[in-house]
Amino acid sequence: MLEALHNRANYQIAKQMMDVTHERHKALASNIANFENPGYKRIEVARAFQAELHKAVAAKDIERIKELRPTLEVDPRNLPERADGNNVSLESELLEMNQNSLRHDFAQQMVSSSIKRLNMAIKGQNM
Q: How many other C-beta atoms can be found within 10 angstroms of the C-beta atom of residue 4?
């Protein structure tokens, strides 16, 4: 029965969203921590990973979704640099962190909901 839950597209997508938001949070925390470090370049979840995830979700390829692992890279966008070579905007990072927290909360609720429904089915009662 647990196998059925783990192979559901919605569950795997939500779980992957949680993994992505966790990695993005690490990137954002690093960017904020290095805000005053001369020459530091902003990092972000790899665009190649995001593209692969979008393709796998569109194709509903559960196995591909399961095997994908988010990675971090220097942000490839040509962001404006300060005189010291750093391209981190503290305001933007804080805004992104808030948005990322909301995405994580949403994914967490989706995963929790799936587990609660499975628990209800096993026990035959509402929680």
A: 10
Chain mean position to CA 125 = 33
Contact residues for 126 (Cβ-Cβ < 8 A; gap 6+): 120
In whole angstroms, give the CA distance from residue 23 to residue 46.
Answer: 10
Distance between CA 85 and CA 76 in Å, rounded? 15
CB 110, CB 78: distance < 8 Å: no
Phi, psi of 87 (to 5 degrees): -120, 25
- For the chain, the average pLDDT equals 88
**pLDDT tens-digit profile of 61-111?**
888 998 999 999 999 987 888 999 999 999 999 999 999 999 999 989 888
